[in-house]
From TrEMBL:
Residues 17-233 form the Nucleoside phosphorylase domain. Belongs to the PNP/UDP phosphorylase family. Phosphate binds at residues 21, 25, 44, 88-91. Pfam families: PNP_UDP_1. Catalyzes the reversible phosphorolytic breakdown of the N-glycosidic bond in the beta-(deoxy)ribonucleoside molecules, with the formation of the corresponding free purine bases and pentose-1-phosphate. NCBIfam families: deoD (TIGR00107), PRK05819.1 (NF004489), PRK13374.1 (NF009914). It is an enzyme of class 2 (transferase). The gene is deoD. Its EC number is 2.4.2.1. The keyword Transferase applies. It comes from Billgrantia montanilacus. One of its GO terms (molecular function) is purine-nucleoside phosphorylase activity. It catalyses: a purine D-ribonucleoside + phosphate = a purine nucleobase + alpha-D-ribose 1-phosphate; a purine 2'-deoxy-D-ribonucleoside + phosphate = a purine nucleobase + 2-deoxy-alpha-D-ribose 1-phosphate; uridine + phosphate = alpha-D-ribose 1-phosphate + uracil. The record marks 218 as: Important for catalytic activity. This is Purine nucleoside phosphorylase DeoD-type.
Length: 242
């Protein structure tokens, strides 16, 4: 049955959902990559679609901005709609010298300044990590497409405009590959409710260098990243049936 945030009955979503933050990005992915895509959600304009990629049914739905928003949608997709795999496809900022705009990064783990995972883990630290097989298949898919990726620890921030500028230098020292706002929450929800999750991002700006990806290049970089995610799903399917 419908939830407060998603309309429609169980079965309207595939077992795998790609999740960009922007619902219009979900619409773009559906129109660009999926055959026969149909809209399955429009509550609060958080658009969701289901279609086929190379014959495989896949859904795509926006998750909004920040850990609270992605946590609501991920939880309901898992518990109310039977979704088993969630892949965040988004953008992030860089802090390391060897990570540049246009790079694709995969969040093997996600540190955070949010308390959500401590709350769900009874006050203890919870290691928010991606599903290993999904990550491995994404790395392999990227290699097959000639897309270089960096895999490591993301930082999921509660504040987009963080007043603690020195925090970015600390992230650099600890090897953070990308700064974004959702992965740690997504990984926590997936762990709590028994799903598999991964985050793959395009670096849109370098926080410490003050560089940003020109608008005309964002679509091309985004397309590369989405295709890596879609191909990773097919490889994951093949690995599960092997």
């Amino acid at each position: 049955m419908a939830t407060p945030h998603i309309q429609g009955e169980r079965g309207i979503f595939a077992d795998t959902v790609l999740m960009p933050g922007d619902p219009l990005r979900a619409k773009y992915i559906a129109e660009t990559f999926l055959e026969g895509a149909r809209e399955v959600n429009s509550v609060r304009n958080m658009l969701g679609y289901t279609g086929r990629y190379r014959g495989r049914e896949i859904s795509v739905m926006g998750h909004g901005m920040g850990i609270p928003s992605v946590s609501i949608y991920a939880k309901e997709l898992i518990t109310d709609y039977g979704v088993e795999r969630l892949i965040r496809v988004g953008s992030c900022g860089a802090v390391r010298d060897d990570v540049a705009v246009r790079d694709v990064v995969i969040g093997l783990g996600a540190s955070t300044d949010s308390a959500v995972n401590r709350t769900r883990f009874m006050g203890h630290d919870f290691a928010a990590i991606a599903d290993f097989e999904l990550t491995r298949h994404a790395v392999d898919a990227a290699a097959a497409q000639g897309v270089a990726v960096k895999v490591g620890n993301l930082f999921s921030a509660d504040l987009f405009y963080n007043p603690q500028g020195e925090l970015f230098e600390l992230m650099k020292r600890y090897g953070i590959v990308g700064v974004e706002m959702e992965a740690a929450g997504l990984y926590g929800v997936a762990a709590e409710f028994g799903a598999r999750a991964m985050t793959i991002c395009t670096v849109s700006d370098h926080i410490l260098k003050g560089e940003s990806l020109p608008s005309e290049e964002r679509e091309r970089s985004f397309n590369e990243m989405v295709e890596v995610a879609l191909e990773a799903v097919l490889r994951d399917d093949a690995g599960a049936s092997a």
